[in-house]
Amino acid sequence: MTTHTTTLDTRHSANQSTASHTAGLGATLARTGDLATRYSVVLVLLWIGAMKFTAYEATAIEGLVASSPLVSWLYGILSVQATSNLIGTVEILTALALIVGARQRAIAILGSLAAMGTFLVTLSFLFTAPGWEASLGGFPALSVVPGQFLLKDVVLLAVSVSLLGKALQQD
Question: pTM (2 decimals)?
Answer without folding.
Answer: 0.82
